[in-house]
């Protein structure tokens, strides 16, 4: 098994909205296991690390070999980053503390998004590829949160989507993982926590098109 070592970086505590500590949380451990399964699947089926289309203008610390193969693909792997609370400015702008699970989900790795299988069907999970990707994500999350506030809806923070474009999000108050239509309240709880959700996912090697 290709172990993605989670021990060399600091992470969030279980206290809502606090910045990272030295102890891995259940969310970090579940994410680490999911991404390890993803890399292992690539080794098993493709006999290599995951591959992505080469783009000289879209670099990342995830890239292992920047020389594209005959199909224009390069190898990459999820890479631990040194990140505290990457959303502190968003929290200030919104005057709210984000649930620590969303901080850990987005702040622990540099990684491309992945496509996963769930009991409800295929899903795409967002991750952060580079600093430009991070800034785009922040702007999208800010717009999402402002829309929730404007419509007087409970704050959720998206982490992915389903094949039929339903939003997968974390309820910022409860930490539950929910499904919702854009612009509406969540209509279904699919997991009681981020770790429970991640532990029930099966990675695939289908291209991520987030």
From TrEMBL:
Organism, per UniProt? Alkalimarinus alittae
Statement: the UniProt record of this protein carries the keyword ATP-binding: no
InterPro entries according to UniProt = Syd, Syd_sf
User: Which stretches of sequence are listed as region Disordered?
Assistant: 1-23
Report whether Membrane shows up as a keyword of the record: yes
- Listed NCBIfam families: PRK04968.1
UniProt feature, compositional bias: Low complexity: 7-16
Q: Which is a Pfam family this sequence falls into?
A: Syd
Which named protein is this? SecY-interacting protein
The alphabetical list of record keywords is: Cell inner membrane, Cell membrane, Membrane
Q: Which domain of life is it from?
A: Bacteria
């Amino acid at each position: 098994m290709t172990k993605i070592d989670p021990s060399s970086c600091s992470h969030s505590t279980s206290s809502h909205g606090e910045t990272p500590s030295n102890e891995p949380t259940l969310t970090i451990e579940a994410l680490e296991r999911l991404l390890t399964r993803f890399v292992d699947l690539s080794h098993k089926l493709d006999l290599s690390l995951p591959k992505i289309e080469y783009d000289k203008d879209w670099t990342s610390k995830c890239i292992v070999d920047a020389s594209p193969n005959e199909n224009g693909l390069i190898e990459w792997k999820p890479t631990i980053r040194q990140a505290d609370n990457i959303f502190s400015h968003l929290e200030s702008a919104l005057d709210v503390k984000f649930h620590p699970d969303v901080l850990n989900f987005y702040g622990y790795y540099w990684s491309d998004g992945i496509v996963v299988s769930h009991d409800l069907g295929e899903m795409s999970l967002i991750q952060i590829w580079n600093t430009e990707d991070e800034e785009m994500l922040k702007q999208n999350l800010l717009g999402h949160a402002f829309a929730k506030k404007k419509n007087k809806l409970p704050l959720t923070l998206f982490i992915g989507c389903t094949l039929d474009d339903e939003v997968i999000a974390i309820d910022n108050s409860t930490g539950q993982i929910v499904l919702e239509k854009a612009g509406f309240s969540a209509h279904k709880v699919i997991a009681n926590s981020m770790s429970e959700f991640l532990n029930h996912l099966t990675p695939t090697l289908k291209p991520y098109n987030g």
